[in-house]
Specification:
Keywords (chain E): ATP-binding, Cell membrane, Membrane, Nucleotide-binding, Transport
Strand content of chain B: under 5%
Protein name (chain E): ABC transporter ATP-binding protein
Radius of gyration of chain E: 21 Å
CATH superfamily of chain E: P-loop containing nucleotide triphosphate hydrolases
CATH superfamily of the largest domain in chain B: MetI-like
Distance between the termini of chain B: 40 Å
CATH architecture of chain E: 3-Layer(aba) Sandwich
Number of helices of chain E: 13
Radius of gyration of chain B: 24 Å
Strand order of the largest sheet of chain E: 6-7-8-3-9-10-12-11
InterPro entries (chain E): AAA+_ATPase, ABC_Ni/Peptide_Import, ABC_transporter-like_ATP-bd, ABC_transporter-like_CS, Oligopep_ABC_C, P-loop_NTPase
Shape of chain E: globular
CATH architecture of the largest domain in chain B: Orthogonal Bundle
Helix content of chain E: 25-40%
Number of strands of chain B: 0
Distance between the termini of chain E: 36 Å
Largest sheet of chain B: none
Subcellular location (chain E): Cell membrane
Bound molecules: adenosine-5'-triphosphate, arginine, magnesium ion
Structural class of chain E: alpha/beta
Number of strands of chain E: 12
Number of domains of chain E: 1
Order of helices and strands of chain E: EEEHEEHEHHHHEHEHEEHHHEEHH
CATH topology of the largest domain in chain B: MetI-like fold
Domain ABC transporter (chain E): 25-276
Oligomer: heteropentamer
CATH class of chain E: Alpha Beta
Chains: A mainly alpha, B mainly alpha, C alpha+beta, D alpha/beta, E alpha/beta
Shape of chain B: globular
């Protein structure tokens, strides 16, 4: 009794019965989108001190790496007196090193490299992990899943740090992107496994099944239902991975395993440490400030990784949104 | 192992070149005739580059698997296995030390902070843990050296036992042993503290589980609830991570031992990197891999002991 | 843990664990070398030979002194007759195991060295005349001092009890193949520290009694002829790699650093009882090598411009922060200025081209412009208007980085673009051998001889030009034949100039037959170096030693003849250090 | 019933799940769960079939097999005479698979997890609209959504549509899910325990709503429930049928009044007993089963699967498995007792007076 | 012991003066601080629970049933604040215990020895990594009981619950089906021989057959172990098969309480009547079923007057003004509605119509 033509007709009927809806204006929609996707997260963040602090510190470093680089001249030896103590002169607030280069300028000019490294590393490891995890999670039980997981397990067993050391020792990468990539390669398997299990459990959710039954194309399901759920997780791991990449890269520079061409916090520490900064108080600041930078940047990432959790939480976001009806939360189920 | 061999082949210049530069950089101020050096190196390394790669590979694999033979160190002219066996116990010692120190503390703190969630104790401990997690462990090492070894001389800055201490089972030796291992172990232990946060998270989640509530309603003793209910169940999801963590802590020896000049596996590998002693490098990498494999294997085997749910049905 | 720490039987007595520390104890502690657990004592085994420990544990045959002479150390006498060098050994020395130390113990080593490759060796024969005499005959005529220099800084470290069988095998070998087989056997022979103790295979004043990864314990060898000279019964060598020497010093836990001077920067943090004891104008310099394969560096004005543009003073200042003691050279001669007078004479030196030791931007600019380069946006572009960048290579060891960093910064601020690569030392040597960069930092390591041959050595620790029979330019593109002005100190070639062959000259210098010939050839080479600037020497390092002068009396200038390599160890081994 | 007059019909469908443990579980045996075991059923136009049974007896699996969301191990599922899985695999089926997909929809038990928590309702609802009406403009697509939402009492729809799922109560979520399933104008909706998660007081309302919409759209329902009284409410109001499942099989099927008033199968009787009524039925207090626990679905009892629990079981039930015995107009039961002349009656009872196994 | 009659508030029922009171609840409130304000999830509840009775508590989801029941063990989940009085009268005339004033260690003793509780989520009430036996023995141990004797008793109880004691005790929780777990949990609740067993929707997740069976078992157990049972559910029909008395909760308060029969046939509160009508029933023609309309109340927002008035078909002006007090409708049957006398007319019960009985 029903055929496709009359179907639309049926729906049409429904519509005609109650056609007094005003179409929403584009402006309202835009406003809502902005509110929900930009303002609400900001409001959530401002409620969560971790996200706030982490974001603030990170922002400072981003500024350092962009504006700072433009504002502060690249330091060279002889810019200032050698080994000036910190907090003495405005031109070199953090003091200078044995070359007479202002510490603060070095810190600033090292930042872009660090970010490049983090970026490359995080993209490689998190991206790879996400692809492998989603693919094998979605093809669960098929051969590709077995292959990918076997491969992942093999990589998991190779201890990361020694492998990285060997690889970097062999290839002596100088480009920060390349360094990031090398440091990223040991990091993905664990993440891939977790992503896979997440995908498996998301797949169990009935809304995915519902989408399938509605005949929604697989690509849309992947994007809408699975990736959107994974995003927070992936971002959080991105932050954690970034911290790890900082640790490892700085460590390898510090130990002198990675060749260095430009400014780098690890290099500064290496030079200071090799110069026996530990036993020479007048040199200590040369070591301390890069250390502080590393600490602050990774601190901000750790905080962010914890705070992001709430940023991505739609519930919180919705609660902080303005454009949805106030009474919405009253009817919400306690669960 | 395949990876190792792949890397082996990827070495720039090949082993002989590496050997040459090692000797050139080490042989002191007397200098050496390059031609002579080349001949010696040919003899010394016994490398037969004429063999096709896959034959070399098969030989290598055969040696490793059948004879536990990892080849000879170029630089030390000693069997890699011997060198590793000499160093391995020391690294084991400090990493187990670190592991025991780091994880036991993390677990206890994790459970405690979860219990006292949102208290001042919790925020205090959590902040410290977050801060610790933001400092690379080797920097912790450096800071420790600075404050405890250089400024205060509580601990030695390097080596594994003190000079002048007689070797043997006597108190002086033991104390010296422990003191020398303390700083490296602490700085490796920092790696393990991230466990405190996940432990806390897990424990908070478990605290919300019905069975914990029921246990409290049943009037069970607090210690029992804390250990058998909270502790045990909170460890479950991170157990495998834990065991892999052992391997991770062990791997960190490469950096920590260098910072503390602690002659263990890590330093051996580090030296091998510096001297481009490829057989040794490969050997250490294989051993590191073997250790992490073992850890994962043991984790798999023992997991069913602590979580009965995954064991195969007996029925 | 049993495999890794060897417990010496016998002396395990607990002596206090701190060294200097104000209280006068009977042990002399000093840092040196690698852990005794990591090294071995067969000098034919390449990698882990105990280079540093041998300095303290074996007698040295002869030494070179800063005045350029080579004089006996262990030897009673060394004489030259034609192509033959005669070595007379003393009769009262013993190995720790009680065996007499005879000429044969040294002879075995000499012969093994020769017989490994008899054709290539410069020695015709070594002959054991009697138990205490060796006659060593060279294939070609060599200046007498150079013949002596051939055995300088060599040790009696081949006990006949161990090595004689290998010598016999070498003597029996019919061809090079068989000899190589013996060499290979030798390569694989190991003498562990434990074996050294057990079999008493050393012969120095102090004998090893025990060791572990963080120390080598030494006790005075009472049968040694010098045993009465000193009242220090024990010593301890702390491996440099097992402990941070600087912090040991700061905490007053060492009594001496046998071949290192305390720098100004260290002075501040070291305790007062540690003082520099003796300072030595040492034989090592550091330099930057230019790769002529780079079209710009191949141009003399560019090299000279670089020499003007960099401030040697501030490079050295930075190095001083890292503990180096030294100063920039006044003239670019390749030789230490200490031997200028002796081989060049002040007239000659004065005439040489003066390159500034501090920055001379104007001079540098003039030179660049002369070569057709122009400055664009602060950077120099070549005559074709193209930009260019020099790759600068250095090792990541602290001193190297310090110097290269400043060098690099100064080139940059002058407008020469550079890309600096700081790589681990092994990788650095690797790249160095193949000259994969435009400018390299490198030591200029002379043998422990204050003699021109040591400085003009045609290898990469010297001024490598390459094998002159191999083509028209060596690995760094330096020509085998080149023209320099006929007049000393002229900045340009006028008239025909003089054609010289630096590589050939350097190779021939050691076989100069007379002092005069040595001087002549040396001047030619110096003039070439000064004119053509194949390398830029930027520091002449000093050496010496420091020690705890409160608790120990240590010989200083005037006390003994110390103007030789490693003066601290030399004093120690000779029993010249006593407690106060 | 012939299959052309029905929307979907399944014929002798079985769905078996084998868990092959994977690489690591080499030593564990493969276990096969016969979730659905040879079931035939037709669902006609405007039909309502209520499917009830204990947890794990295979209701959902059967339901999914019927709407073509679960591929049967054997047997055929046809949609208006077209084999669903052939349509999917074939190049040129009579009825395209996407058409089948559109016509068979589902409402899940847990409304909370049936909606993507990260999407606003509008997004979730627009997706199927985009799929089914690709030619319509965005605004045009939105109209029926809003209309339907108003219809199910979510008013003002403009407001609801911009909420996230967690901003709705369970009842409201369930209505949205119902709306979503209706958007494609389906012929059959599988309501898999669609009301179980709701508060008792909301269930009747929800069922009424479903029935109301059925009238409007002419949809059939396959209504899965483990609650006899709810199943009865819905089916009876729509004049539908009820099917009782036990361990992968339909043990009794028929018009709702007949099955409720005159249950044939002992299991149905037990269910009826277990469904407490507010008023009356005092007295029948004895448990009408011998064992409370359901047997292991992997290792099922021989003969009639119900015999270990059946108080009326006889020897023959132990060994032989009864077929569906139809009594009158579509009421059938898989029990020998439905056939008054069956040899069962001569078989010896395996139950003693105390209800224990002899 | 009939001295507990509280004439002032009229909370006790005279008809039952022969029965003792086990729990006396007065002015009970449970509040949570939320970021929207104070959330009052139990509001001013007065209730007496009699010894050896089965009290059923019904009400829609979120009406505060669980909260109320957990106050009996002073076990409201953490940020929650409990105020008021909960007095427990031990058997044989021991001193009354004020439950909310117990110290930590006294509570530990009180719980499970006097009052045990079987939870809403039976499935997750066992520690997943501990055998069932462990749960029994640790409970006995920590209450300083003789473990062997206790385990024997546990075996007995398990058998009474149609379980194979050895199999169940040796199993890990995950190895048991839901029904088995639920019964094992009931056995665990009885292992210390408590006076009172609080059961919070113990059957909600189970199959009909299992639910009904457990109800039967409970009736037997109650006799055998002299229990007082407090049974919470929103499944009204099920409850009527077990409970002696019913308490109906709406909006965090009890709106009606009385004997089961009394409530079924003479419900006085409109909400109770609505609930009765919305309950599917095989014996009732489908046409007679209605649904409850409207939204459930929010614990943060205090509805002025009668909290049911927004949903009540009988509500008028006065209902929005004042809160109706609890009044005694007949002995033991109390309700909080201004119009409890008119309710028969306004909202006839199904049972009234055809008198199906
Ligand atoms: N994907 C699957 N893999 C393996 N076994 C399955 C799968 N889906 C269901 N089963 C098994 O098949 C049987 C029937 O499951 P089904 O979900 O159809 O039962 P149900 O009657 O819907 O139960 P409930 O009332 O609990 O929803 C169960 O034993 C279940 O464990
Ligand atoms: N931890 C908590 N914090 C704040 N409010 C809570 C908390 N737990 C429950 N509530 C609120 O308390 C009220 C009563 O909850 P309670 O669990 O007692 O309901 P219930 O009647 O048992 O419901 P159900 O039948 O669903 O079990 C609900 O509105 C709920 O939202
Ligand atoms: N010959 C060499 N490899 N020299 C390089 C190292 C120099 C050595 N450290 C020395 O000062 O003598
Ligand atoms: Mg189901
Ligand atoms: Mg509840």
């Amino acid at each position: 009794m029903s055929n496709p033509e009359s179907d639309t007709f049926d729906l049409q009927n429904l519509y005609d019965e109650s056609s007094d809806h005003e179409p929403e204006s584009r402006k309202v929609r835009l406003k809502r989108a902005i509110d929900l996707n930009a303002l609400a997260p900001a409001r959530v963040a401002s409620d969560d001190w971790r996200a706030l602090l982490g974001g603030a510190i990170l922002a400072v470093f981003v500024l350092m790496g962009t504006v700072g680089v433009a504002l502060v001249d690249k330091p060279t030896s002889g810019d200032a007196p050698v080994l000036a103590a910190p907090f003495q002169a405005l031109a070199y607030p953090f003091g200078t090193d044995v070359f007479g280069q202002p510490i603060h300028a070095q810190l600033i000019h090292a930042t872009p490299g660090i970010f490049k490294m983090i970026f490359a590393g995080a993209v490689v490891s998190v991206g790879f992990a996400a692809v492998v995890g989603v693919l094998s999670g979605f093809k669960h039980g098929e051969r590709i899943d077995t292959i990918l997981m076997t491969f992942t397990d093999v990589v998991i067993t190779i201890p990361g740090l020694p492998l990285i050391i060997v690889i970097t020792a062999i290839f002596q990468p100088e480009n920060p992107y390349l360094v990031g990539v090398f440091l990223g390669i040991d990091n993905w398997p664990g993440l891939a496994r977790t992503v896979r299990s997440q995908v498996l459990s998301i797949r169990e959710e009935s809304y995915v099944e519902a989408s399938e039954i509605m005949g929604i194309p697989l690509s849309t399901i992947l994007r809408r239902d699975i990736l959107s759920q994974l995003m927070p997780y992936v971002m959080i791991n991105g932050a954690i991975t970034s911290r790890r990449i900082i640790f490892e890269s700085v460590g390898l520079y510090f130990l002198g395993i990675l060749p260095f061409t430009t400014f780098n916090w690890g290099v500064m520490m290496n030079l200071a440490y090799e110069g026996n900064a530990l036993t020479r108080p007048e040199m200590l600041h040369w070591m301390v400030f890069p250390m502080l930078c590393i600490f602050l940047l990774s601190f901000s990432l750790v905080l962010l990784s914890q705070g992001l959790d709430s940023l991505f939480n739609v519930r919180l976001r919705a609660r902080h949104a303005n454009t949805t009806k106030k009474d919405a939360s009253h009817t919400s189920q306690s669960d | 192992m395949t990876v190792s061999f792949g890397l082996y082949q990827a070495m720039p210049g090949g082993p002989t070149e590496a050997m040459k530069s090692v000797i050139l950089s080490q042989s002191g101020s007397t200098g050496m005739d390059i031609d002579r050096l080349n001949t010696l190196i040919q003899l010394y390394t016994n490398v037969n580059p004429d063999q096709p790669v896959h034959v070399q590979y098969l030989n290598y694999v055969r040696d490793v698997v059948l004879y536990q033979d990892l080849g000879r160190s170029f630089f030390k002219n000693e069997k890699v296995t011997t060198l590793i066996l000499q160093r391995l116990p020391w690294s084991m010692f400090i990493s187990l030390y670190a592991f025991a120190l780091g994880y036991s503390l993390s677990i206890i703190l994790g459970v405690l902070t979860a219990y006292k969630e949102k208290s001042r104790f919790d925020s205090g401990v959590s902040s410290v843990v977050i801060a610790l997690n933001s400092i690379p462990y080797y920097i912790v090492g450096v800071v420790l050296i600075y404050f405890l070894a250089i400024e205060q001389s509580y601990f030695p800055v390097g080596g594994r036992i003190g000079s002048g201490v007689p070797v043997g089972y006597n108190p002086d030796f033991m104390i010296s042993l422990v003191k020398h291992a303390a700083l490296p172990a602490i700085s490796m232990g920092v790696l393990a503290t991230s466990a405190a946060l996940s432990m806390r998270g897990n424990a908070i989640r478990i605290l919300g589980e019905d069975y914990v509530r029921v246990a409290q309603l049943r009037g069970l003793r607090d210690t029992r609830i804390a250990t058998q209910y909270l502790g045990h169940n909170a460890i479950l999801p991170m157990y495998t991570q834990f065991m892999i963590g052992i391997a991770g802590v062990f791997s960190s020896a490469v950096i920590v031992e260098e910072v503390f000049s602690y002659p263990g596996m890590g330093l051996l590998m580090f030296e091998a990197v510096k001297t481009q002693d490829y057989p040794l490098l490969m050997g250490t990498l294989i051993v590191f891999t073997a250790i992490s494999l073992t850890a994962i294997f043991v984790a798999d085997l023992t997991y069913s002991l602590i979580d009965p749910r995954i064991s195969v049905d007996e029925s | 843990f049993s495999e890794s720490e060897t417990t010496p039987t016998g002396d395990t007595g607990g002596d206090g664990s701190d060294g200097g520390s104000g209280v006068a104890d009977d042990t002399l502690d000093f840092p040196a070398g690698r852990p005794p657990t990591d090294v071995q004592f067969n000098r034919y085994s390449l990698g882990n030979y105990a280079h540093t420990l041998q300095d303290q544990l074996f007698e040295q045959v002869a030494r070179g002194y800063a005045d350029g002479s080579v004089r006996p150390d262990l030897l009673e006498e060394m004489t030259v007759d034609g192509r033959t060098l005669t070595l007379k050994f003393p009769k009262n020395f013993k190995w720790w195991n009680g065996d007499d130390l005879t000429a044969e113990d040294y002879f075995v080593g000499l012969e093994i060295d020769r017989l490994q490759q008899p054709e290539k060796s410069t020695i015709e024969s070594n002959e054991l005349v009697d138990d205490y005499t060796i006659e060593r005959t060279f294939k070609n005529a060599v200046a007498p001092n150079l013949m002596k220099a051939d055995v300088a800084e060599t040790f009696v470290n081949t006990p006949r009890s161990v090595y004689k069988e290998y010598l016999t095998k070498l003597q029996d070998a019919a061809d090079q193949g068989e000899r190589d087989a013996v060499t290979e056997e030798l390569l694989n022979l190991k003498i562990t520290t434990q074996q050294l103790i057990d079999e008493g295979l050393g012969n120095g004043l102090y004998q090893v009694t025990g060791f572990n990864s963080s120390e080598t314990k030494l006790k005075k060898f009472e049968d040694h002829p010098y045993a009465d000279r000193t009242d220090i019964p024990k010593a301890r060598i702390i491996p440099e790699t097992a402990a941070d020497v600087d912090s040991l010093a700061v905490n007053n836990k060492v009594d001496m650093n046998p071949d290192v001077l305390m720098s100004k920067s260290q002075r501040g943090s070291y305790p007062e009882n540690l003082q520099n004891v003796y300072r030595l104008n040492w034989f090592r310099t550091q330099k930057f090598t230019f790769n002529f394969k780079n079209e710009h560096l191949a141009k003399l004005p560019v090299r000279r411009a670089i020499a003007h543009a960099v401030d040697l003073e501030s490079m050295v200042a930075a190095m001083r922060q890292a503990g180096t003691v030294g100063k920039p050279p006044k003239k670019q001669t390749a030789l230490r200025s200490t031997i200028h007078d002796k081989y060049l004479g002040s007239d000659f030196v004065d005439k040489l081209i003066d390159y500034p030791t501090s920055k001379d931007v104007e001079g540098a600019t003039a030179l660049m412009e002369e070569a057709g380069y122009t400055k664009k946006n602060g950077n120099w572009v070549d005559p074709d208007g193209k930009q260019f960048t020099f790759n600068v290579l250095t090792s990541n060891e602290n001193i190297q980085v310090q110097a290269t960093k400043v060098f690099n910064d100064q080139l940059n601020s002058f407008g020469l673009q550079t890309k600096i690569s700081t790589v681990s030392s092994s990788d650095y040597y690797q790249r160095l051998q193949t000259y994969q960069a435009d400018i390299f930092w490198i030591w200029h390591v002379a043998k422990a001889l204050w003699h021109p041959t040591a400085y003009f050595s045609n290898n990469f620790y010297g001024i490598e030009v390459g094998d002159p029979s191999s083509g028209d330019a060596g690995p760094t593109g330096k020509p085998f034949t080149t023209t320099i002005p006929s007049e000393v100190g002229a900045k340009e070639v006028q008239g025909g100039g003089t054609e010289i062959q630096p590589a050939k000259l350097m190779n021939e210098l050691p076989s100069s037959e007379s002092k005069k010939e040595v001087k002549e050839n040396t001047r030619k080479l110096v003039q070439w170096f000064n004119y053509a600037l194949p390398d830029l020497v930027f520091v002449e390092e000093d050496s010496g030693y420091w020690g705890d002068v409160e608790d120990f009396s240590m010989p200083a200038e005037g006390d003994q003849e110390l103007n030789t390599n490693r003066p601290g160890q030399f004093s120690f081994k000779n029993g010249w250090i006593s407690s106060k | 019933m012939s299959s052309d007059s029905s929307v979907v019909s399944v014929d002798d469908v079985s769905v078996h799940f084998t868990n092959n443990g994977g690489l690591l579980d080499l030593f564990s045996e493969n276990e096969t769960v016969r979730a659905v075991d040879g079931i035939s059923l037709d669902i006609g136009e405007n039909d309502v079939v209520a499917l009830i049974g204990e947890s794990g007896c295979g209701k959902s699996t059967l339901g999914k097999a019927i709407i073509g969301a679960e591929r049967p191990t054997s047997g055929t599922v046809t949609f208006r005479g077209q084999d669903i899985w052939e349509a999917r695999d074939e190049r040129d089926p009579e009825i395209p698979f996407s058409e089948i997909r559109r016509s068979l929809q589902i409402i899940h038990q847990d409304p909370g997890s049936a909606l993507n928590p990260n999407q606003r309702l509008l997004t979730s609802l627009m997706l199927p609209m985009k799929k089914w009406y690709p030619d319509l403009s965005r605004e045009r697509r939105k109209e029926p959504i809003l209309a339907l939402l108003e219809k199910v009492g979510l008013s003002p729809a403009e407001d609801f549509v911009n909420r996230f799922p967690h901003q709705l109560s369970g009842g409201e979520q369930q209505r949205v899910v119902l709306v979503r399933s209706l958007l494609s104008n389906p012929d059959l909706i599988l309501a898999d325990e669609a009301i179980s998660a709701l508060d008792v007081s909301l269930r009747v309302e929800m069922m009424d709503l479903m029935l109301e919409l059925q009238e409007l759209f002419g949809t059939s329902y396959l209504f899965i429930s483990h609650d006899l009284s709810n199943a009865r409410y819905l089916a009876e109001k729509a004049g539908g049928r009820i099917a009782v499942m036990y361990l992968g099989r339909i043990v009794e099927v028929g018009p709702i009044e007949q099955v409720i008033e005159n249950p044939q199968h002992p299991y149905t009787k037990a269910l009826k007993w277990a469904t407490p009524n507010l008023y009356g039925d005092e007295g029948e207090e004895e448990l009408p089963v011998r064992e409370i626990d359901i047997p292991d679905p992997v290792d099922r009892p021989s003969g009639c699967h119900f015999h270990p629990r059946c108080p009326k079981a006889r020897e023959i039930c132990r060994t032989r498995d009864p077929d569906l015995i139809t009594t009158d107009d579509g009421h059938g039961a898989r029990c020998y007792r439905a056939d008054e002349s069956h040899e069962y009656w001569d078989s010896q009872s395996i139950v003693d007076d105390e209800g224990e196994l002899r | 012991m009939n001295s507990t009659l509280d004439t002032e508030t009229g909370t006790d029922d005279a008809a039952r003066d022969e029965s003792e009171v086990v729990f006396e609840v007065r002015d009970l409130e449970v509040t949570f601080g939320t970021n929207r304000g104070e959330s009052k999830v139990v509001r001013d509840v007065d209730l007496d629970i009699h010894r050896n009775e089965t009290l059923g508590i019904v009400g829609e989801s979120g009406s505060g049933k669980s909260m109320l029941s957990s106050t009996l063990l002073n076990a409201v989940v953490d940020p929650g604040e409990t105020s008021g009085e909960v007095t427990y009268y031990p058997p044989d005339g021991g001193d009354p215990i004020s439950v909310l004033d117990l110290s930590e260690s006294e509570l530990k003793e009180f719980r499970w020895e006097e009052v045990a509780m079987v939870f809403q989520g039976a499935m997750s009430s066992f520690n997943p990594v501990k055998r069932v036996r462990g749960h029994f023995s640790e409970t006995l141990e920590d209450h300083n009981r003789d473990v062997d004797a206790g385990m024997d008793r546990a075996r007995g109880i398990l058998e009474d619950l149609y379980l194979d004691p050895d199999r169940v005790l040796n199993a890990y929780p995950y190895e048991l089906s839901g029904g088995m777990k639920q019964r094992a949990l009931i056995a665990l609740g009885l292992v210390l021989e408590p006076e009172v067993l609080v059961m919070d929707e113990p059957t909600a997740a189970l199959d009909l057959l299992m639910q009904r069976s457990i109800i039967s078992l409970l009736r037997d157990l109650k006799e055998e172990y002299d229990l007082t049972i407090i049974f919470i559910t929103h499944d009204l029909p099920l409850l009527t098969k077990l409970a002696d008395r019913l308490a109906v909760m709406y909006a965090f308060d009890i709106v009606e309480v009385g004997d089961t029969e009394e409530i079924l046939y003479h419900a006085a509160h409109p909400y109770t009547r609505m609930l009765l009508q919305a309950t599917p029933d095989l014996n009732v023609p489908v046409e007679e079923m209605r649904s409850v309309e409207g939204n459930k109340p929010d614990p943060v927002i205090r509805i002025p007057g009668c909290s049911y008035h927004p949903r009540c078909p009988m509500a008028d002006e006065s209902c929005t003004q004042a809160e109706p007090p609890m009044v005694m409708r007949s002995p033991g049957h109390r309700t909080a509605c201004f119009y409890h006398d008119d309710v028969d007319e306004a909202m006839p019960l199904r049972s009234d119509g055809e008198g199906r009985r």
